[in-house]
Design brief:
about 675 residues, alpha+beta, Immunoglobulin-like, 6 domains, six-stranded antiparallel beta sheet, five-stranded antiparallel beta sheet, 9 helices, about 35% strand
């Protein structure tokens, strides 16, 4: 059988028809078997040499060709594994390197020197890293910092060693230090110093509380908070009881073995409604003591505020007050009132204290009846009932004072307040002349000054607004129960206007319940030109008194001017008056216009008339606009033509020449 083409041939034939020489069969078989033997021993280059000899005898030998291809693949795979091992070793990923060496060992000969060196190197590195990991695990509970260092050394040798990676992640962080607690109004504020960063990620903190003593470990108490920042405020807590605190570091759910503790801290509360009322040569102190407190201590100091419970002279005190006598009038005395609580072992623990300042002298009463009234000349008149003692000054500003009525302060504190001070011109009277007609809201606060002490009075919020100018009122003859009101939009500082109309008397204010009151915004008045007021049908024929007020809406409240100068009386309707209806006709872009007149009663005579136009507001008098045209006397049905430019964009009204009161001229409802 020919080993190349697998055809039968005679033993005495020198060649097969494929060209293979029968004399080469024996040496070819030898080399092929030798190649198989070398492949089994993983001597790939030796096997490749024998297969090359086989191909010399039989170039088309299928087994030799496939064997060469397989050997070349194995050699390439070994080279790839050697390169991958070099990469992992350079990155100190010894666990991955060991896996590559295991694959390499299944392909290469056990006698391969490079394979043996790699096996020895990987085994030694992993053994050393595992030994460090074991040592770190033993120190993890007792010395976390040393354990982290050993874990890092192990990872420096084998960076992908799973035991070291997980051990370092689960290694407890360092605990915080310098825990400080202070009590403020029934709450405990804690602050501490976080541990130095260990490079393993952000940390948080767990706060543990225990009543009566400081916690000794993480389970010795009640966890009250997990926070990120190194501070926490616990409360409100019952006053008179003591609590201890401990803080532990937490990183990814792993808590530090050691923490920092403080306490027990006695929870205190401050006195309420503390007040110092000075008199001649004495100061009376009153307060409301917390229920849990066992008493109070009052400390006095001259020249500076009291810093702590031992900084000054102790004043004999009751549970709810004290009277300090024998003091110098006009001198500033500083007081601090401490609530006392019973702490551990029966010792008294003071609160942080409430500070007060008092100046003995004559009792000064606050001004609570200040009134502010705007006069027609723009001056605000301030009046009050003069007190028996002290002097009064008025603080004026765009914002109210931060102190409330009845609060007592030193003279220097009040005089440092920003704003203007107004001195009285006589007892109980002062004038704010700095407004110069300026509109707006101001706050006036009376302050009573005594000997080194000042008392704040009741603040008055006052809107200083000038009455609107140019009030004009007339009846609408198409609807006798309606008034047409016009206003001149001057610099009155108003954002709107309030108009009140009352029959047979003047309105008592912008919200007179018996008056007809309407509000209009300044922008709306500019667009419409006039304001209409519908009167009650039963009172339409009576004389009406109309008052206009400038208004400001601020903070949900309406502020108005005094309404003393913007007043008009509208007389009742009179019989015998001729009503002239007029209609303008013309194109919007053209200059030629015509006007047609008709009268009630029909056929009445019409005197000379004048046509007046204004750019913004409807003129209510001939002098409030520009004269566009004059028309001679005529009768009912008269028609006149005239020329005028831009008439369609202006407010237009026809008036009787000379202001004849017997004629009323109104535009037709269907007019152009």
């Amino acid at each position: 059988m020919c080993p190349v083409c697998q055809h039968r041939m005679w033993v005495d034939e020198p060649r097969c028809r494929c060209g293979f020489r029968q004399c080469d069969a024996e040496p070819m078989r030898f080399h092929f078997e030798a190649a198989q033997h070398a492949f089994r021993l993983r001597r790939y280059r030796e096997a490749l040499g024998h297969l090359r000899q086989v191909q010399r005898y039989a170039p088309r030998h299928v087994g030799a060709r496939k064997g060469v291809e397989k050997l070349q693949h194995q050699i390439r795979e070994i080279r790839r594994l050697r390169a991958a091992y070099a990469v992992e070793r350079a990155a100190r990923r010894m666990t991955a390197a060991r896996a590559i060496v295991e694959q390499w060992s299944r392909l290469a000969s056990p006698l391969d020197g490079r394979l043996k060196a790699a096996q020895d190197e990987v085994g030694a590195a992993l053994a050393q890293a595992q030994a460090l990991t074991v040592r770190a695990r033993r120190k993890q509970e007792s010395d976390p910092a040393a354990a982290r260092e050993l874990y890092r050394q192990a990872l420096g040798i084998a960076s992908d060693l799973a035991e070291a990676v997980e051990g370092l992640r689960r290694c407890p962080p360092d605990g915080p230090t310098e825990l400080v607690g202070e009590v403020r109004s029934g709450r405990v504020r804690l602050r501490w110093q976080p541990p130095p960063p260990d490079g393993l990620g952000p940390v948080g903190f767990r706060v543990v509380r225990k009543e009566g003593a400081a916690p000794r470990h993480a389970e010795d108490g009640t966890p009250v908070a997990d926070v990120v920042l190194p501070e926490f405020e616990d409360g409100p807590l019952p006053a008179g009881r003591s609590f201890g605190y401990a803080v532990f570091t937490i990183r990814e759910g792993v808590r530090s073995q050691l923490g920092v503790a403080t306490g027990p801290i006695v929870v205190t509360d401050e006195v309420r409604q503390a007040q110092a009322v000075p008199g001649r040569g004495m100061v009376e102190l009153t307060w409301r003591l917390p229920t849990e407190a066992v008493g109070a201590r009052v400390v006095r100091r001259v020249g500076a505020p009291v810093r702590d419970v031992k900084d000054g002279e102790v004043v004999e005190a009751r549970r709810d007050g004290a009277v300090d006598r024998g003091l110098e009038n006009g001198r500033v005395y500083h007081y601090a009132i401490y609530a006392l609580f019973r702490g551990p072992a029966g010792r008294l623990v003071p609160s942080r204290g409430v500070g007060l300042t008092a100046v003995p002298g004559d009792v000064v009463e606050p001004v609570m009846d200040l009134r502010a009234v705007s006069r027609a000349d723009g001056v605000v008149e301030l009046t009050w009932k003069e007190a028996a003692a002290g002097r009064v000054r008025i603080a004026c500003g765009e914002l109210p004072m931060v102190w409330v009525a009845g609060e007592r302060r030193t003279v220097s504190e009040l005089e440092a307040v920003e704003g203007r001070w107004i001195d009285p011109v006589e007892p109980g009277r002062a004038y704010d002349t700095a407004r110069n007609g300026e509109s707006g809201v101001r706050y006036y606060t009376p302050v009573s000054f005594g000997e080194g002490l000042a008392v704040v009075g009741a603040v008055v919020e006052h809107a200083h607004l000038m009455d609107p100018a140019g009030l004009r009122v007339m009846r609408d003859w198409r609807n006798p129960g309606r008034l047409v009101v016009g206003l001149g939009l001057g610099a009155d500082g108003a954002s709107g206007y309030r108009i009140a109309a009352c029959a047979d008397r003047w309105p008592e204010g912008p919200d007179d319940p018996k008056a007809v009151c309407v509000s209009v915004e300044r922008r709306e008045l500019e667009e419409r030109g006039v304001v209409t007021i519908d009167l009650p049908a039963e009172q339409a024929g009576r004389a009406w008194h109309v008052v206009a007020y400038a208004a400001i809406w601020r903070g949900g409240s309406l502020w108005t001017s005094d309404g003393q100068t913007a007043r008009v009386r509208v007389e009742p309707l009179r019989s015998g008056r001729v009503v002239v209806w007029y209609r303008l006709v013309g194109s919007v872009g053209g200059k030629r216009w015509s006007i047609r007149l008709r009268t009630e009663p029909p056929g009445s005579a019409i005197g000379p008339t004048v046509l007046v136009a204004a750019p913004r507001l409807l003129p209510l008098r001939p002098t409030e606009g520009q004269t566009v045209a004059r028309f001679p006397a005529g009768r009912d049905g008269a028609r006149y033509e005239f020329e005028a430019a831009g008439l369609a964009s202006r407010k237009i009204r026809l008036f009787a020449e000379g202001g004849a009161e017997s004629v009323l001229l109104l535009p037709e409802e269907s007019g152009g």
